[in-house]
Amino acid sequence: MPRLLVIGAGTGGLMVANHVARALERELADGRVAITVLSDRDTYFYQPGLLYVPFDLMRPSELTRPVRSLLHRGIRFVHDRAERIDAAARRVQTRSGATLDYDFLVLATGSDVDVDSVPGLAAGGHWFYTLDGALRLREALRRFQGGRLVMAVGLPHKCPVAPLEFTFMFDEWTRRRGIRDKTEIVYTFPINRAHSIEAVGIWAAEEFERRGIQLETFFNLEEVDPDAREVRSLEGTSFRYDLLVAIPPHKGDRVHKESGLGEQGNWLPTDRHTLNLKDHPEIFVVGDATNLPVSKAGSVAHFEAEVVAENLINLLTGEPPSHLYDGKVFCFLEAGLDKATFIQFDYDHPPVVAPPTQAVHWFKQTYNRVHWLNLQAIV
């Protein structure tokens, strides 16, 4: 009986497991295939929704579901943490001391903010990439009556357009409250433009100029001085702030390094088309954990999960893998509180940014509410 083990119950992990389970329902029921999902979290968290929490546009209760409720009934769920992956033995050791053997493994371990990598940030700044951070930022916005907001972006980070979205939403939020004339907005980015994707950077710079937002490039976040209320860069520039919103650098799960599988930053070396871990045809990687030159975003995990699931269905039924990932990315980009645009690209086709519209904004809001069906491979 072939055994599939999925580590991680985020977007990529849930979609892979559910897609395979729905395709192989008879095999699962008859005991001819086994699927296990291992995660140290028993609650799924819809991370893109955190962008809206600081503006009181979504409640935390709207962003969570029990993992078990999102899994196909034929899937075994183990609430535990993977401590070590023995790729040679095809075995995973967990924190509780359990051993999980597999024939095929999916690493959907995601990424997390590394706040401590920036001295002073924990005490002097805010962020919205965690629930606690988003709630703290919500309280800060409720108190904000004007002053200088600095958006300081660190690299790498997931949901790459989210810092731009927050900045545009904040700009409009201050205008609606009648405090934009008392507010200065500074956006910093580590390279020579406003975003790592050239087309997005050009579009954002034009929007910044139109809206009176200051852009500071070549600003690599080095440290925060909470007492002086100042954020400093490796290049020697600094800004005083009244409100600092930072995007901490991200890193992959420590189990990658501890298992001898991860590279710098704990990212996993992944084949850009097959999504196999380097030198391991029985291991697949989806979502933020890869080292691929595509965005660390939910849509990427979605498209990768579809490819991996199809290949696993083949492998679990004795057929060779047949699908390849083409680098497809699709990201909505809020351009304020009621308009949005989107970018779509792949390995061979660069993105083009269309003018924002209300229709795209409402498409994004709709997706926020049907996302649960995608996770369950229902749509």
From TrEMBL:
Membrane-traversing stretches: none
Coiled-coil regions listed in the entry: none
An example Gene Ontology molecular-function term: oxidoreductase activity
Domain FAD/NAD(P)-binding: 3-291
Protein name, UniProt field: Pyridine nucleotide-disulfide oxidoreductase
